[in-house]
Amino acid sequence: MSATTGPKLWTPGDWNALFGFGTNILVNLLTLTALLRFVLQMPDAIVFGRILPAAGLMMFLSTGYYAWLGWRLAKRTGRSDVCALPSGISVPHMFIVCFVIMLPIAAATKDPVKGWEAGLAWVFIQSFILMAGGFVAPYIRKITPRAALLGTLAGVSVTFISMRPALEMFMTPVIGLVCLGVILASWFGGFRYWRGMPAGLVAIAAGMLIAWGSKIFGIDVGGVGVAGVSAALSGIGFSVPLPAFGHVFGGFEFIGVILVTAIPFGIYDLVEAMDNVESAEAAGDHYPTTQVLTADGVVSLIGCLMGNPFINAVYIGHPGWKAMGGRIGYSAATGVVMLALTWLGIGGLLLALVPLVAILPILLYIGMLIGAQAFQETPKSHAPAVVLALVPHLAAWGKTIIDGALGAAGTNAAAVGLDKMAQNGVLYSGLSVLGEGSILSGLVFAAIGVFVIEKQWVNAAGFAAAGAVLTFFGFMHGPAVGVAVMPVVAGAYAVLAALLFGLGRVAQPAAAMAAAE
Q1: How far is 57 from 372, CA to CA, in rounded Å?
Q2: What 3 state SS string does 232-271 have?
Q3: CB atoms within 10 A of CB 367
Q4: What's the pTM?
Q5: Which of 58, 169, 174, 392 could crosslink 438 through cysteines, CB 3.0-4.6 Å?
Q6: DSSP state of 477
């Protein structure tokens, strides 16, 4: 890299990352569009005329900022392998704001616009929590072991990122497995396709070829068709975001419902951002946590004030995009593409042409890479702590699957009976307690494990005590924030803290005597 020309804004590997990350963002965008239209019954005028254009603006600002941050890091260090942080609409928040905030309020008021306004107010509060938390996060990151930060991130990647794409791939294996093979051969095996074509593009092309080719023989593989393309073409238009200040503050009439989830998910944001910054640093790129969280808060606030009820977040997956050659340009280019898709309304057309199952192996690849990183970038002796971090996420995922199955049958766990479920091997109560606040409990579990392995008993006791406080107020193991939400579990953490502290007091004289001998 020349000192006069500065870092390159585009490299051949950015094409790979653009197709991979861009399709990831596109899938998320189309998913939330479906939630808004078919679950919340939001009018198309609001979905395509207000929400999506504002979401596109937010993503454009976010990806542009992180491209600039990557360029600045590359210029300061003189390195040519710096990869910009990936960012976009937070997927966990997307479902939380839809199902926990917007849907209940829309149903209670019989007005989907009220649900939209409540979502805007929720993001407004979240934005300020992010900005304030940016100044606390670096200290938390400093005292927390890498195995804990990366381990709880691996839990998210194994359960909520990898599992659904893997399951959907095997629902259409003729496309899913072929596209997965195309991706693995290139990104893990180093195989180069014709004229250096990006593996993500080759996978999508292969999926389209199989899906559309099957139509010749009258077989429906991949769910694509002329009718879907025609419907998507009719939805193309042009919309720009407009200020939505009145709608934002109109949602504050539901402040009681909003705060129940805004505070714990604000803490979730802090931990998630720290995890993802730690993941990037493990891959060789150091970004200031305070700047990351502040940026997420600012662009989320801008998006919210323009009508977008979804929060921005740095994504997990930086090592994956870097490994496939992504540098700086892929981030900014993704933002430009999303701006065009949302302002022109052509995202639906793309998904009508490309079978979704052809895109899903890319998400599975990212999940594989992040899960592996937790073991590869931490000391071998800390591997048991990483596994410990996975456990709460597995519980949360299991509960989600059970709830979905029972909901499809028109019932729920309480109606079936928790004792009856336990007699049949389904420990629903345990899944519920263990899985609530899994991002935090996974971190606390792993941190305790690391410090016990390292015989740093006081530090282990400190994280157990933190677990007691977080649990007492419902941030971990509880369904909502409050006072004395889970007192028994909080008490158990307090006893564990005392035990670990006591073991440390006993171990110190023993260690001193052994050293003297």
Answers
A1: 34
A2: HHHCCCCCCCCCCHHHHHHHHHHHHHHHHHHHHHHHHHHH
A3: 25
A4: 0.75
A5: 392
A6: S
